[in-house]
Amino acid sequence: MLKAIRYLQSKTKTPMLNIFRKHIEKFTQVSDDEFEEIKKFFDTKEVARKENLLEEGHVCKHHYFVVNGLLRKFFINEKGIEQTTEFAIETWWLTDNFAYEHKIPSEFYIQAVEKSTILYISKANQEQLLKAFPIMERYFRFIYQRAYAAAERRIKYLFSLSKEEFYLQAIRNHPEFVQRVPQYLIASYLGLTPEYLSEIRKRHIS
User: Fold this and answer.
1) Helix axes 194-205, 163-173, angle to 10 degrees
2) Is the pTM of this model over 0.85?
3) pLDDT digit string (tens) for 183-206?
């Protein structure tokens, strides 16, 4: 019975790992033998809609790779309003980078917007992985560079564009979000009220 369960778990996990390997190979090459060892550093998880992977005040222990689904990172401001700062769709990574690197309590929440399937790695496992497989340093360097560049662009848009222009820019860059993300979360990400976002959308639909 136990062997049967393990076999089913292995069969279920294989497609997830294939997606992850394809993503790695966008940035660096790994052999079959290397990947067999690399995947041992990761765990998998099915996450329910609105389930929290991280909560404010908890030490950020993991870095999350989205195999299927959609995550968001947010904080609760002084008015008690949720302010979304990042989304992550398929093949995107998400964590609280500062809290993860320094092993300290986070100021953020990470939550599933949809039912999601993720791979995740702990800080300790990631450090061991990078020592054992230097090629993965190249992979994660690209991941961090892309995340940093995306954060820089968002800051630039916040300061240089009107709220309406920021929304239209977001739609052009990531049209998939319009279909998948609830409007109130898009408003939260853009720093708008849901009512004002609705007005903007009506102007551009008509």
Assistant:
1) 70
2) yes
3) 899 999 888 888 888 888 888 765
E strand spans, 39-104: 43-47, 52-54, 62-68, 71-76, 82-88, 93-94
Please give the full DSSP string across 90-127, using - where no structure is assigned.
TT-EE--HHHHHHT-B-S-EEEESS-EEEEEEEHHHHH
HSE, CB side, 13 Å, CA atoms: give it for residue 19: 15
Token representation of residue 150: 């995306």
C-alpha to C-alpha distance for 197 and 108, rounded to whole angstroms: 24
**Distance between CA atoms of 20 and 28, rounded to whole angstroms?**
12
Q: Select 2-156's CATH number: 2.170.190.11, 2.120.10.30, 2.60.120.10, 3.30.200.20.
A: 2.60.120.10
